[in-house]
Structure formats: structure tokens, C-alpha cells
């Protein structure tokens, strides 16, 4: 496919995504593990969603939170990975103007929604360990519903201006995006307007949301650890690990991949440009693929629910 010149001054109706410009020859090989991870993520999350919906014994606040997390993971995967694979397999590099900014919004919004969901899950763990007698009165279906509304509204309102500001720019510097996905930084570079306000808003908003979420999660786990260490009863530590171990592993996956992505972006001048692009793609694949597996393996009720579901098929 012949790409258009990147110095056109005509109105932009579509963009062209260039994935791994320096390594075009091995894109087909890279697509194999990516497609396998994508199938794993979609299959595992769909199974978890179906199991929780069909098993009445799993109609509890914690499992509703897992449903929310799986739904976010599915949407993130479907927003990013099929387009990347279409570029690798069929050289379908074009993406329409509206689709590009829709993808940008979903990535920014759902990433912060996922981070916020981990806070609620950490709080669930905190109540179950530190206030076990009050758990059933605090963590209720109404609490989960209000928390889900808060997650959607907070992150939707704060991340909405990012694609709106970007879509209003004049793109007179061409329409070839040096990325596999429509990130705000990659797209806004093509504008001939003043983009600093847009980029500063994204930086401050996203990292304030993600940073405050991480601080709250660390504080909650600190109080959990403090409570567990103060309990002298035998087996208290093992019970706490059994209750909160899955929460901690999921948060660790999410935070570690995100931290690596941040470090590579900060060190962009010393590493190839393709490295942060690949890590950004993997961040939309690895946590979604591993999250339902961790809960499926570590949670007896979910394992039993999956077995019951398989018997019905």
C-alpha cells in the first residue's frame, strides 16, 4: 500500500497508522503472539462474565466488581488490538477521523476507569480484613452500583476534553501517525495549531487520576498489612493472603506494565521509538489476559461456577 505524503495542507478526513516503521519485516511474526493473547483475553473475560451472570451464588458485590473489570478489559482490547492486527495482516493502515478520536477517548477513559475500579476492589479487601463484622453492611449491591456510577462519571467527564480538543485542531502537517494506535501525543503532533494546552491537560488529568488512585491503593494495603500483623491468631496471614492475594496480583500487573511504559516514554531519546509503542499495545493485552485467569485459579467459587457452566454446555 502506498502511503500519502505527510506534508499535505488539504483537510484531513482520515489518518494512516505506521506500526514499527524500522521493523516492517517482522510484523507478521509479532502478530502471532498478539493474536494469541487477544484470543486469551477475550475468551477468559467472556467466560468470567458469563459465569458470574449465570451462577446465582456469585451474585455478590465482589463479583459484580469483577464483572465491571472484565467489561472494561474487553472494550479496551476490542478498541485497540483488532486494528493493530488488521495493519499487520492486511496492511489496513487508514483510520477515519471520527474513529481515531473515538479510540483515543476510549483508551484514556477506560484506562482510568480500570485504575479506579482497582481502588474499589482494594477497599473491598480493606473492609473484609479490617472491619469484617461490618462487611455485609458496608459492601452492598447499592455500594457497588454507586461506585460504578462514580467510576464512569469521574473518568468520563475528566478525560472527555482530550479527544474533543484534539479533534478541533487543524491538521495541516499531514496525516501519517507514527504509531499503531491514535494516542493523543502522536496525533496532536500533526497539527499546526497550539497543542501545548491539550498535551498539558492530558498529562495533568491522567497522571493525577492514576497517581491518586495508586496512592489510595497503597494506603489501603498498608492498613491491611498493619491489621494483619497486629492479629496474633494463627493463620491470620494466610487468611489475609487468601482474601486479598488476587486483588494484589491484579493491581501489580496493572501498575508494573504502566510503570514500565512511563519509564520508556521518559527515556524515549535513548531507546528506539518502537519500544514504547509495543509496550503500549501490550498494556492493552497482558492485564486483560491475566486478570480473569488469576481470579479463576485463585477463587474457589469462580472455579466451581466455571465447572457448573461447562456441565451445562
From TrEMBL:
Locations listed in the record:
Membrane
**What's the short name of a Pfam family annotated to this entry?**
7tm_4
What cellular component terms from Gene Ontology apply here? plasma membrane
What keywords were assigned to this record?
G-protein coupled receptor, Membrane, Olfaction, Receptor, Sensory transduction, Transducer, Transmembrane, Transmembrane helix
For this chain's UniProt record, which GO biological process terms are given?
A: cellular response to lipid
What does the record say about its membrane topology?
A: Multi-pass membrane protein
Query: Where's the G-protein coupled receptors family 1 profile domain?
Result: 44-295
**Does the keyword field hold Membrane?**
yes
Signal peptide as annotated in the record: none
What's the domain of life for this entry? Answer: Eukaryota
* One MF annotation (Gene Ontology) recorded for this entry: olfactory receptor activity
Where does the sequence pass through the membrane?
Answer: 64-89, 95-111, 204-225, 245-267
Protein name per the record? Olfactory receptor 56A5
Which source organism?
Theropithecus gelada
Amino acid at each position: 500500500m502506498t502511503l500519502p505524503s505527510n506534508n499535505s495542507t488539504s483537510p484531513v478526513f482520515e489518518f494512516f497508522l505506521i506500526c514499527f516503521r524500522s521493523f516492517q519485516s517482522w510484523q507478521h511474526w509479532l502478530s502471532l503472539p498478539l493474536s494469541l493473547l487477544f484470543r486469551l483475553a477475550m475468551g477468559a473475560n467472556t467466560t468470567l462474565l458469563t459465569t458470574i451472570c449465570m451462577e446465582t451464588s456469585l451474585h455478590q458485590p465482589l463479583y459484580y466488581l469483577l464483572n465491571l473489570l472484565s467489561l472494561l478489559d474487553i472494550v479496551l482490547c476490542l478498541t485497540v488490538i483488532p486494528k493493530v492486527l488488521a495493519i499487520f495482516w492486511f496492511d489496513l493502515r487508514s483510520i477515519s477521523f471520527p474513529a481515531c478520536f473515538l479510540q483515543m477517548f476510549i483508551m484514556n477513559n477506560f484506562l482510568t476507569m480500570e485504575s479506579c475500579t482497582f481502588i474499589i476492589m482494594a477497599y473491598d479487601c480493606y473492609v473484609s480484613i479490617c472491619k469484617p463484622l461490618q462487611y455485609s453492611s458496608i459492601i452492598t449491591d447499592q455500594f457497588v452500583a454507586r461506585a460504578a456510577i462514580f467510576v464512569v462519571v469521574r473518568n468520563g467527564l475528566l478525560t472527555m476534553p482530550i479527544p474533543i480538543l484534539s479533534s478541533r485542531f487543524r491538521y495541516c502537517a499531514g496525516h501519517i501517525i507514527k504509531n499503531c494506535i491514535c494516542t493523543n501525543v502522536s496525533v496532536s503532533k500533526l497539527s499546526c495549531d497550539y497543542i501545548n494546552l491539550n498535551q498539558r491537560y492530558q498529562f495533568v488529568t491522567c497522571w493525577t487520576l492514576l497517581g491518586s488512585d495508586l496512592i489510595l491503593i497503597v494506603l489501603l494495603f498498608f492498613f491491611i498489612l498493619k491489621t494483619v500483623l497486629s492479629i496474633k491468631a494463627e493463620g491470620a496471614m494466610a487468611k489475609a493472603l487468601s482474601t486479598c492475594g488476587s486483588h494484589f496480583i491484579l493491581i501489580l500487573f496493572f501498575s508494573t506494565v504502566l510503570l514500565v511504559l512511563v519509564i520508556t516514554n521518559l527515556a524515549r531519546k535513548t531507546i528506539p521509538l518502537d519500544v514504547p509503542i509495543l509496550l503500549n499495545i501490550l498494556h492493552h493485552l497482558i492485564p486483560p489476559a491475566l486478570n480473569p485467569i488469576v481470579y479463576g485459579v485463585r477463587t474457589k467459587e469462580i472455579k466451581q461456577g466455571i465447572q457448573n457452566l461447562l456441565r451445562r454446555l
